[in-house]
Amino acid sequence: MTRNNSSTFIALFFSIFLLAACGKEENTEPPFIENISLGAESVELSTEAGSGIIEITSNCSWKATCQADWITLRSPQGKGDSQLMFFWQENTKNTSRDAVIIVESSQTKASVSINQAGTGFGTEPKVVSCRGVVGNKIKNEESYFEMTFDQPVTVEYWETENYYIDSNPTYSDGGKTVRQKFSPGALGLDLACRVHLKNAKDAHATIDVSIPFYEKKFAAGGEVRFALPSADEKSVWVSLTRPNKLVELSMDDGHVLHDIDMPFAPGHICYNPYNKQLYVLPLNAIADLGFDNRLSIIDPLTGSFTGEIAFDPSPEAHPQWPAIYPYELEFTNDGLGIVILLEEGATGLEWRYIDSANGNAQTLSGYSWAEKQFEHVYRSFNGQKIWSSPYPRLFSPLNSISRQQPTPEEYVLDTKFRSEKYYAGGNMMDMQFSRLANKVFICTAPGSQCVIDLDTDTYSEVTEAEARSSRAAWDYSSASRSWVYQVCSLDQRFLLLDMDKADCIFFSNHIWNDTPKNVCHLISTDQVMVAADNSIWLLNADVMKTGWK
Questions:
Q1: What angle do CA 239, 245, 248 make, to 5 degrees?
Q2: List of domains in the chain
Q3: Cα–Cα distance measured from residue 350 to residue 202, given in angstroms and rounded to the nearest whole number
Q4: What global pTM score does this model have?
Q5: Backbone angle region of 524, left / alpha / beta, with phi > 0 → left and psi within -120 to 50 → alpha
Q6: Could you count the other beta carbons within 10 Å of the beta carbon of residue 32?
Q7: How confident is the model over 509-529, as pLDDT tens digits?
């Protein structure tokens, strides 16, 4: 029994030995080695954008990468022999730039160095200044833009997203200033443009620039509802919705001087010359922005709230829709105010007196909701009284109110401006009283304008220009003449009218599709301010009157 066990043990030992020996013979084969090689070690590129192919020789799976943001790889993963396509952007810089494309597997990697040439300018050209100039179509002037560089250049071509520009520039100042005709030029336009340049040595450069067809533009930070220049015209107060704010912007550079959160969606802003306070009224025009029966009083020096006036239904109010929502207000120099109230969901209007010389006390008009409805109020040229126009969209009869004459006094105007040129229609689109003379500018739909001297009861000749969706402003360069700016959004035309001669002095296009919230002429800088959309624009008024130098 013992002998047989020993034989079995010896046989088992030799079997295990032979198996181990066989195993060692199988592991003697060499391990698999991954290989990657590329068709080039380096690539030189010109400044222009383009594409290329790198040949890959490999026996394994691989992945390609490149950290440079100006190079893009197509199909950056693969297996075995393949071709890697890559794309590069134009180099608009003066100096060359480098990148590396790496192709790697889990065991090995290979790379190719990429060098792209720069433009070759000794110093990359810089834009010193640029401006867009809108031509006066009355004089058949062409619009153009002008760019001045810090060195002589030659323009090869221009690129814009929305316009085609036939590159035929003219040069001045030894080739540093470039002027290009641009017929789509319009007041208020920002023209985003890419200009391709070369220098005397045929070195190339590309520069992106925004060309303004205005003097200044200030982003207001919301939807502009009204804008009122300060008394010294060094700043502008702007009411905004989304968000509901009142902001004061510097006329110098647009920086925010005051930023005030409002308790309602603000609209009209009125400056009271008696107590030198701002009266801010709710917009009260758009349902989803809400209606409010209060107005806020703000100190323009500190930006702080100094008071509030609330309006409750009067005994004369409509029993179902009381007019308690303020939307327009004006004050005389001695502090008497007239506020216009409207209804929510109906068209009835009411007006009341506000005496800021007596603690902002309210006094009812004394008229029922169906009598003597005023739609708009205006301060007279000398600030001694308030004019009002009747509802709905009428311009006659005007009514004047003052502290000395608080009962409305009618002034009947000829509803056809005493002119055979009056264009039938009649709805009043805009009315502006001059601040320098006792005159009023009236434009009616669809297209008639007239200036009336309220001292002499004389009427200017009627001009015929589209009046719907328009806003107007007097030019205050001279008290002796009746010049008026009119911005019409229906046909996107900007006009300067000489109402003394019933003539148009300046005519161009503008960009504002929606009716501007208001337009005014700044005496101190001879600029036209346009409040629209979400910004404030300042336009050069002098060139509209005298032409570009």
A1: 65
A2: 36-116 (2.60.40.10), 127-212 (2.60.40), 262-412 (2.130.10.10), 415-516 (2.40.10.480)
A3: 73
A4: 0.79
A5: alpha
A6: 8
A7: 999 998 999 999 999 999 999
**Residue reference for tokens 């006036």:** 309
- Closest to 337 (Cα-Cα) out of 290, 248, 270: 270
> In terms of DSSP H, where are the helices of 27-95?
none
Q: Are the beta carbons of 93 and 118 closer than 8 angstroms? A: yes
Q: Indicate if the pLDDT at residue 39 is higher than 90.
A: yes
Return the closest-CA partner of residue 177 out of 207, 210, 203, 151: 151
Tokens of 18: 């032979």
Plot region of 254 (φ>0 → left; ψ -120 to 50 → alpha; else → beta): left
Q: Which two tokens stand for residue 522?
A: 């700044």
- Rounded to 5 degrees, what are φ and ψ at 45? -115, 150
**Per-residue pLDDT reduced to its tens digit, 83-132:** 999 999 998 887 889 999 999 999 999 999 999 988 777 777 889 999 99
The CA dihedral of 485, 490, 492, 496, to the nearest 10 degrees, is -20
- Would you call 289 helix, strand, or coil by DSSP? helix
Q: Are 285 and 327 in contact (CB under 8 A)?
A: yes
